[in-house]
Specification:
Blueprint (H helix, E strand, L loop, with lengths): L2 H14 L24 H31 L4 H22 L5 H6 L6 H12 L2 H14 L4 H25 L4 H9 L3 H33 L3 H51 L4 H20 L2 H20 L3 H21 L4 H12 L5 H18 L21 H25 L3 H4 L8 H19 L2 H16 L9 H9 L4 E3 L13 E3 L4 H8 L4 H39 L5 H23 L6 H25 L5 H22 L1 H6 L18 H18 L5 H10 L14
Antiparallel strand pairs: 1-2
Helix pairs in contact: 1-2, 1-3, 2-10, 2-22, 3-9, 3-10, 3-22, 5-10, 5-18, 5-22, 6-19, 6-22, 7-16, 7-18, 8-9, 9-10, 9-22, 9-23, 9-24, 9-25, 10-19, 10-22, 10-23, 11-19, 12-15, 13-14, 16-24, 19-21, 21-22, 22-23, 24-25, 24-27, 25-27
Length: 735
């Protein structure tokens, strides 16, 4: 279906022009700051247009064909397997056809990707599992508060377009540490840049591979850990063989799949609920209906019963914590008596086995019991809240600006956290190395600007649809699922519970046999993936959505793996250890490093550390604290020097890491932090980057002013970076 299109695309790329040679070391010269044109770019662009149009038509036909097969009885599991295998084989095929050992092709795709396609590839690189899977889920759970992600992520691209993209393209080398090394001089800024790039990219990569495992497990029914390594194969074949060239053309193909997969179910859902195919037009009307239904649920006696039951359960676990030793002994004794009684009465084998499993689940010792019961207290208290712990969807902030002193404080704190998260995500976006490196792949500075504009448009399509999707899914859950008898619940609930019970679970806690909203716990990471089943759409749509989520996760994982591998092989090995290394040796080392990093990230993701959105937000915090101040100062402030930027990047990273470890639950448990969290100004750890960025910026300014000014060459470098390129007549040319 699509592998042929990918093959033709790569042959077109190879036939268009020979790779352009670029300087990769030394001070920047005016000839290196000019506009580079790709020979034959117009025919190349037209050929790409034909190939990807044919590819899109082929993908639509492929989905329609599977839909027809579903109607004649093709099992759901086979539909999932076909979607998984066909898409992974397509990406792998592009990787094989794009294999290269040329450094310029491997690192920056030959610097001849047209702006339209580079924008599409950038959008795919950007719209990770967090955007495709997590964004609508976050909006579902947080309502208005989730819009901070939409504002922050889209606003960040405005910063990229205005402050960084054209200047990095004008610089025109391979990596972000390349820029730091050339601008500030010496190896130390480059080394710190490598450390920061590896750290934030690895955290981001773990989130993507977690998403890959989740989707693969759902599509095929295999175990989550096996799903991680199955999906990882598609990542490795593409980036391992062809580097940025393969990743770029694969990401274009992946964007087409993921945007179709995201838009089709929400448009279908919009037609089902309102008869209007454009969900953005009916978003407000559906939100009003959800708000009215929320009022009904808040006053529903059955929901009050559920809240009371969870409160009682939390109090029971809290009582056990008063005397852990005695409570643990009593629980074990009660468990043994239950098993013995069932055996004595010749109870059914299933009941006996269930009782034995319950006995085995009792904590092994007092420390384990204290930890487990403390966790249960927190979990049940969280569920003993109205609307299953979710805020009213249209409520802007918690608290009341006109209420009591406590309510006003809650309102101000909620608003402060919203703004802090928006700022953190904006500057984090503008500091992510795997996004910024795409500025190097266009033919010119002008194309780099256009590329960012196209990327914003392609990202806009998903981000303006996600809020509508969240509201429409909530409408379905509130009005269709809630009130259903437990013995009539749809099969997708049990299916997702088997994939990961922490993502979806239901319990009839008030024993009335009917599902109440408070009896269902749903994680944000499955809202999009489960949307077709929640809405009762054909299973082929579920397969397409999963394939779209897989495309989103794989496209970002490819870019992140390349960023880490190139930072270690190009910046560390070639630039700092062995400058005489041949091009083939450098590319080979990058491939080996890429494989090792992928396996390491898969091992971490298999532990299911925390949710996707937090992992991604942590990566943004690290990028905001390290790269953004250093890059902006490097472009616009000639006084910024090597001691200042090194001290600023290191201090920003340390402050951010400290705040995360002290306050994020998973990191606290990982590092054994036992004292209570210490929030600064009440800011949640998800926005830790605002502190690192502020400290890093201040340190860069203070240390730069207190130490020796940069030399004349560095000053000239910075000034020329902002001078428009000139054409052959010496006049300012296109930018």
């Amino acid at each position: 279906m699509s592998a042929g299109g990918g093959s033709r695309a790569i042959r077109a790329i190879r036939a268009t022009s020979a790779p352009t040679r670029w300087p990769i070391a030394g001070p920047l010269r005016r000839s290196e700051l000019g506009v580079e044109q790709s020979p034959g770019s117009a025919p190349f662009r037209r050929r790409l247009d034909r190939i990807y149009l044919a590819y899109t038509v082929g993908f639509i036909g492929f989905v329609l064909g599977l839909a027809a097969l579903e109607q004649v009885g093709l099992p759901k599991r086979w539909i999932g397997v076909i979607f998984l295998l066909s898409t992974v084989l397509l990406y792998a095929g592009i990787g094989v056809l794009s294999r290269t050992t040329d450094p310029t092709e491997y690192y920056v795709a030959g610097r001849r990707v047209p702006a339209f396609y580079n924008g599409m590839a950038t959008a795919a690189d950007w719209m990770s599992a967090a955007s495709f899977i997590g964004l609508a889920g976050t909006l579902y759970l947080q309502g208005y508060g989730g819009l901070a992600f939409v504002l922050g992520w889209t606003g960040g691209y405005c910063l990229v377009a205005l402050l960084l993209a054209p200047y990095l393209r004008k610089f025109g080398q391979f990596t972000i540490p390349d820029f730091l090394g050339a601008r500030y001089g010496g190896q130390l800024p480059r080394a710190v840049g490598v450390l920061a790039a590896v750290l934030c990219s690895f955290v981001y990569l773990v989130a993507q591979i977690y998403g890959v495992g989740l989707i693969t497990a759902r599509l095929t029914g295999v175990d989550f850990v096996i799903g991680i390594f199955l999906g990882l194969g598609g990542v490795l074949v593409c980036s391992f063989l062809g580097g940025m060239r393969a990743v770029t053309w694969t990401q274009v193909a992946q964007y087409i799949i993921l945007i179709c997969a995201f838009l089709v179910p929400v448009m279908w859902l919009s037609i089902k609920q309102t008869g209007v195919p454009i969900p953005q037009l009916v978003y407000g009307a559906q939100l009003a209906k959800v708000t009215e239904r929320e009022r009904q649920l808040l006053n529903d006696p059955k929901e009050q019963e559920v809240i009371a039951a969870f409160k009682a359960r939390a109090q029971d676990y809290a009582a056990r914590l008063v005397d852990v030793k005695a409570s643990l002994a009593n629980e074990r004794q009660a468990g043994r008596r239950t098993v013995e009684a069932l055996k004595a009465n010749n109870a059914p084998l299933a009941e006996i086995q269930a009782a034995e499993k319950a006995l085995l689940r009792i904590p092994k010792n007092e420390a384990a019991a204290r930890e487990a019961w403390t966790r249960e207290v927190a979990s049940n208290e969280a569920r003993a809240r109205p609307l299953a712990g979710m805020p009213p969807h249209a409520q802007q902030f918690a608290g009341d600006p006109q209420g009591s002193a406590a309510e006003r404080e809650r309102f101000n704190l909620s608003r402060l956290n919203f703004l802090a998260l928006v700022l953190c995500l904006m500057v984090g976006t503008a500091g992510l190395p795997h996004i910024l490196v795409r500025c190097y792949t266009t033919p010119s500075v002008q194309e780099a600007r256009r590329s960012v504009t196209w990327a914003l448009l392609f990202i806009f399509l998903l981000y303006m649809t996600a809020p509508a999707l969240a509201v429409m899914v909530k409408y379905e859950v509130f009005n269709v699922l809630v009130g259903t008898r437990f013995d009539q619940l749809p099969t997708w609930i049990s299916t997702w519970s088997k994939v990961d019970s922490s993502l979806l679970s239901v319990v009839d806690i008030n024993k009335d046999g009917i599902l109440q909203l408070g009896e269902m716990r749903i994680g944000g990471d499955i809202v999009v993936l489960a949307t077709p089943e929640i809405a009762g759409l054909p299973y082929v749509v579920s397969g397409m959505v999963a394939a779209g989520g897989l495309a989103a996760a794989l496209s970002t994982a490819d870019g992140l793996l390349l960023t880490i591998a190139n930072a270690l092989s190009h910046d560390s090995y070639f630039k700092m250890i062995n400058p005489q290394a041949s091009a083939a040796r450098r590319v080979a080392l990058s491939k080996v490093t890429l494989l090792a990093v992928a396996l390491g990230a898969a091992a971490v993701a298999a532990q299911r550390p925390t949710d996707i959105v937090f992992l991604v937000s942590a990566a943004f915090s690290l990028a905001a604290a390290s790269f953004f101040p250093a890059l902006v100062a490097g472009v616009f402030w000639t006084r910024a020097n090597r001691p200042g930027v090194v001290a600023g990047m290191v201090s920003g990273l340390l402050v951010t890491l400290y705040y995360l470890v002290q306050n994020e639950p998973w990191l606290r448990s990982l590092f054994g932090v036992t004292h209570p969290p210490t929030l600064w100004f009440g800011i949640s750890p998800i926005a830790a980057g605002v502190f690192g960025m502020a400290v890093g910026t201040a340190v860069i300014v203070v240390v730069s002013l207190l130490t020796t000014a940069p030399d004349a060459a560095s000053d000239r470098f910075t000034r020329e970076l902002r001078v428009p390129p000139r054409d052959s007549s010496g006049l300012p040319g296109p930018q």
